[in-house]
Write a structure and sequence with these properties.
Blueprint: H1 5-16, H2 22-29, H3 37-57, H4 59-66, H5 70-90, H6 110-115, H7 118-130, H8 135-154, H9 156-163, H10 165-198
Helix pairs in contact: 1-7, 1-8, 2-9, 3-7, 3-8, 5-7, 5-10
């Protein structure tokens, strides 16, 4: 399944799911001193971006090291995206429970796994390994997607007030439906390449 810059950007936004993470962002940031929230959001977004960028740039080496084929990665990525999409569609409304301590979060849970989770890592790895000649496009798409996530993170409480929780949850389910179609396409593409290679 080949991607353009626009389709890669949409795919990354669907996987990163910034709107779906609004309730969790608010819960996490509520434990932080208001004066430090913007700095924390920027720091966690940069950490997530660097982690995803490392997976993107080291994708081919990782596949060779683990003796994995691109077909296997494409099918596995499709399965992971399908699971994430199903969770987005059928998840119960509400906020993920957080620990009661008031310590400022570092890496967990904002950078990992909310931003740079398994599905995002698999997606950037797949993009880079599937079309390595367009690596600059994927890096730019990742940067734009992470910038959008940072904006959502910085204005999480305001966005949830404006949109309302029912609309936020409805948007997340809509994103889940789109992501389901992308996951199915990835699965079919990987299987076509596998069975085509056998003939």
């Amino acid at each position: 399944m080949d991607h353009s810059f626009a389709s890669a950007l949409v795919l990354l936004l669907l996987v990163l799911d910034p709107l779906g993470g609004l309730p969790v962002y608010i819960t996490v940031l509520d434990r932080v001193d208001p004066a430090r929230r913007a700095r924390l959001a920027l720091r966690e977004s940069v950490i997530a971006f660097l982690l995803l960028l490392a997976f993107m740039l080291g994708g081919q080496g990782f596949l060779r090291l683990m003796n994995l084929s691109e077909r296997a990665l494409e099918v596995a990525g499709g399965v992971i995206l399908m699971i994430i999409a199903i969770r987005m569609i059928f998840a119960r409304d509400g906020v993920m429970p957080m620990e009661a301590d008031r310590r400022e979060p570092l890496i967990f849970p904002l950078a990992v796994p909310l931003l740079a989770g398994p599905s995002a890592l698999a997606t950037v790895l797949l993009l880079a390994s599937r079309q390595p000649d367009r690596l600059l496009h994927w890096v730019l798409a990742l940067a734009v997607a992470m910038g959008i996530c940072l904006l959502v993170l910085l204005s999480a409480a305001r966005l949830q007030r404006w949109l309302g929780e029912p609309l936020v949850h409805a948007l997340e389910k809509l994103m889940g439906l789109v992501l389901t179609a992308i996951a199915v396409e990835m699965l079919l593409s990987g299987l076509r390449r596998y069975f085509g290679g056998l003939s």
